[in-house]
Amino acid sequence: MRSETPAAAADDSAPGDGLVKAGVILFAIGAVATLVTVAPLLLGTDPFPTVAYTVSMLMGVGFLVAAAGVLRAIAVQRRQARSGRTSTVQAR
Predict the structure, then answer these.
(1) Are 69 and 25 in contact (CB under 8 A)?
(2) φ, ψ at 78 (rounded to 5°)
């Protein structure tokens, strides 16, 4: 039996997967920053500086980056399906 190496598994990534992974990471950083910036408001302590609120905007940026990755994967799949359909039509 042949086992798959981690390097071979990394080659199986589809177009857009990198954008989705980067988007998830950015979203997670933004979500943590949002929780951190909201906590002082709920606890009645002094709020954080504006930079902390700016970092929380990464949540929206991460969502957009992940959505771009999904749209890229969809576009590639549609292109592949279209080229497969035209090659079968030409064979007739």
Answers:
(1) no
(2) -65, -40
Distance separating alpha carbons of residues 11 and 30, to the nearest angstrom: 29
**What's the predicted TM-score (pTM) here?**
0.72
CA distance 62 to 21: 9
Q: Is 58 exposed, middle or buried (0-12, 13-18, 19+ CB in 10 A)?
A: buried
CA proximity to 69, closest of 35, 9, 24, 2: 24
Report the distance separating Cα 82 and Cα 92, nearest Å: 16
Contact 70, 28 (CB under 8 A): no
Render each residue's pLDDT in the chain as its tens digit; 92 residues: 555 556 555 567 778 899 999 999 999 999 999 999 998 888 888 888 888 889 999 999 999 999 999 999 999 989 888 888 665 555 55
| Number of neighbouring beta carbons within 10 Å of residue 67 | 13
